[in-house]
Amino acid sequence: DAKTTQPPSMDCAEGRAANLPCNHSTISGNEYVYWYRQIHSQGPQYIIHGLKNNETNEMASLIITEDRKSSTLILPHATLRDTAVYYCIVRARANAGGTSYGKLTFGQGTILTVHP
Amino acid sequence: DAGVIQSPRHEVTEMGQEVTLRCKPISGHDYLFWYRQTMMRGLELLIYFNNNVPIDDSGMPEDRFSAKMPNASFSTLKIQPSEPRDSAVYFCASSRQGRGNTIYFGEGSWLTVV
Hints:
The complex is a heterodimer.
Chain A: E1 9-13, E2 18-23, E3 31-38, E4 45-50, E5 55-56, E6 61-64, E7 70-75, E8 84-92, E9 110-115
Parallel strand pairs in A: 1-9
Antiparallel strand pairs in A: 2-7, 3-4, 3-8, 5-6, 6-7, 8-9
Chain B: E1 5-7, E2 10-13, E3 19-24, E4 31-38, E5 42-50, E6 53-56, E7 65-71, E8 74-79, E9 88-95, E10 104-105, E11 109-113
């Protein structure tokens, strides 16, 4: 799986948008970009994923550049409860039959601190 | 729907004792994963199963670790004998083929070996 690069930490004011960048310059055509987060003492939580188009759900938006070498996770109105470690992961598409399932390989992530 | 359920949530045991961690995946999911998280190494994939069959156990640290999945709704991760360096949070996760393959994690089992 392609490696990702994220800033180790970021701050954001409550109520403002949090924009978390991720570089994945070696991503290949069959690899997705996934975002998870881990709030202290909890299991990782799925946020969103995409292949090449921008994606939005109730939690966040994912903007993927046209060349797919980088992406940005946007939390539109950050709250104190969004303080967590955010992981950007590049994951291969699963192979039918499960013999080559896309592994979810976690890096160090970005520690996002939302302050009042 | 109930999420991935793990037990025990916390365990403290003495070095040399056997430890068994348990996991119930989300109903209908056909993939099950065991991860370990430590400060030094972060989140590591230990092993995963598809339809109860182990597919990749290359992350299992050594022979003291073993994992089984006797049926679609239950899996165990066993450490025998346990050592202090096994102290970590162990996460179980599951997913379903074809549903975006999103992997959902349990809340983890916090293991301390003294």
